[in-house]
Design goal:
four-stranded antiparallel beta sheet; mainly beta; Methylamine Dehydrogenase, Chain H; 10 helices; single chain
Length: 844
Amino acid sequence: MKIFTEHLKLFFSHLLIEKNEIEPWLRDMLGRAMLVRDAEGNFRPAHRSLLEFFAAYKIVASLGAMAEDFVNIARQQTHLNEAAAPKRYTWSGYFQRIYNRDGSPSEIAPLESFETTEFEALLPLLGSSKLTKAVLDLAHLMLNKEMMRKQLLPLLWATREHLSEEASLLAGNIAQLMLARMSGALESIDLSHTRLKGVNFTDAELKRTSFKQACLQEAIFAKLVGSISSLAYSSDGQYVAVGDSKGALQVWDTVTEQVVLLSSGHSDWILSVAFGPDSDTLVSGSADQTVKLWSIRSEKCFAILNGHSGWVWSVDFAPDGKMIASGSADKTIKLWSVEAQKCLSTLEEHTDAVSSISFSPDGQMIASGSTDKTIKLWSVEAQKCLSTLKEHTDAVSSISFSPDGQMIASGSADKTIKLWSVEAQKCLSTLKEHTDAVSSISFSPDGQMIASGSADKTIKLWSASSEQRLLTLEEHSDIVRAVAISPDGKTLASGSGDQTVKFWSTKSGRLLSKVKGIDIGIRSVAFSPDGKMLALGSGDQTITLWSVASGEYHSTFKGHSSWVTSVVFSPDGQMIASGSADKTVKLWSVEAQECLSTLKGHMDTVRSIAFSPDGKTIASGSYDCTVNLWDVDSGGCLTLDGHSLWVRAVAFSPDGKMIASGSADNTLKLWSVDSKKCLSTLEGHKSSVWAVAFSPDGKMIASGSADNTLKLWQVDSKKCHVTLRGHESHIRAVAFSPDGKRIVSSSSDRKLKLWSADSQDCLFTLEGHKDRVRAVAFSPDGTKIASGCRDGSFRIWDVATMTTKHEIYNRLFEGLNIEGITGLTNAQRTALQLMGAVGQNTLD
């Protein structure tokens, strides 16, 4: 019993929320009353945890892949012939007892290990239902990590001959156990022609795995989701639609969690989505200035509505589904006919962007909220403004009618929610507990509850009648841009800039489930000082190292909890510094491949980092509008304030005396490293400055901007020397060649351009990338250029020939073979291919 207790403590204490829970849990498990008699007189386990433990133990032992420490528990068996050589047993063979004539148990040889039970005998144990989370959490820790592939893969392969539903479920449960024990358990494994049911592959590493001709029923995979900008429930509750920062629209089945529609039909943020009353038609509004109509059944866009001249911030269906309203940054509201697919009228009284719109439940009115701080009520029939509500002190970001149409709730950048009487057209009350802008609001179907999402990263649930806060939900790590309550009122969905969609119980506030998006894009590239290695910072939260000569993968550094936005080698090449959307800077040992320290101090995404030439200081630029200077040895920090918006780029001068920073406030600033003061502000760009770089002699600065231009500035005069035009979209990165004679720029137009620093001519345009080129760098010897793309690929270019030397994809499912696979939705197949899977689709 003592050994049993010690093993329980060792392996399961981390599953309990509080440290002081382990002793009560053990008392529950091992107390005197392990069995109790129920009302019918039958005995049952006194505690569910006991039942789950022994269920997990029996499963793993029956599979013949139990870790040695857990086998030791079973070895404490009585009536053993200690003189006999230990032998392997099946679960039933070891615990089955033969009795002597006198009624005493026969002695058996000691247990060496458990062997795998025959496939058919496992079906009753693992082929009737999916493993519960509690059993899965216990069982996977009992698996022998080193031997589980050898023992368990044959059971998966056996489904090539065993075609029953039970066999598929058995194999699915085994695969789930293996993945719970090790996320890469199935990587590079041939699982062609196998049958697996109900596997959640969300966290699985499946590069080069083969599912050729396999049947994967009810499988769930990682979602290819960027920063969440909008979401909505269908009226029947069957679907959730999600729009993101990359212009991708997805629709998920709320029961199976499978993707049923996936499209990259928009070229910019999808800012709003709404379902029609038939739960099949969907409308989306985007920063690409278009409104699009979609059919879930056909999985296609069937109409594109053009007419707005600014971002489309909000869309909504009329209750009868015949009309759509759209609100835009062009200050207008447009009403569209769904059937005719044309604009019926334009409403034009707002003086700034229309950020939110909502039809009244009877369809006779539209409410609109604007960054002009007002709410307007409009007559749909007369197409004129009925009244203007003016009590907010900042932009109105979200509005919603109550289900009975008698009230409007509005959320604002002034951090408040206001409730308005539609009839009296006055503010009834103000809800004030958010500490940052309120970005989204939603009524429950019965009108009794209001949900609000905020830039303070929280969701709050309020009573609409008492106006009291009921719950505060705090699991998100970034702005909550969208909230929606399910049609049955039981579930709240929230979408955030942290790339997650979370589902909550509206009654208890408990987190029910979450979808963590995968961002495969390369955000930063850096050559090592000797030019032999290339470091990549990726949206998948990792830094990877690659051989420049061969293009082969070298190693991965894991530790960040959000996108890696910037990577740079130390001057001596022994360290890598990385900046992340998790607000930290990390220092890594290249040789030991481990994190040396984590620098915390920024209040928002760290967008850019740079080492000083002597390697003693790191500069970091952040979305908190500051530049921080960090002492590499001590971790000490000094902050430079001055920018009014996000700092997107930082660079040290070659002598280490100055820092240049580029910002979303359209300016560059030059800072003295010694005095920590701003020396000058360089103005001239008409949009955000995304990139800055000093020339090797320190006399010039190159800056790239969202205004599509590259500017060269003279450091001495602080003036713009020349403006280079040629890119058709935002310039994301710039770099000087080591001799200072050339400049390379990368852009959202999918191109790189090579410029002469002397003549300012474009020498060459490098094409081939299929998406935004976010990162670029020259090799230390100037013979190569590395570029990183949003689609997860990177290229190494030969400067002499202007050709690609290596093109490599580093996506989540690179090389996963799905040729002829069945059981997946079309949208799932598309998503897998976008994440690197190969093979022709075969329709079910």
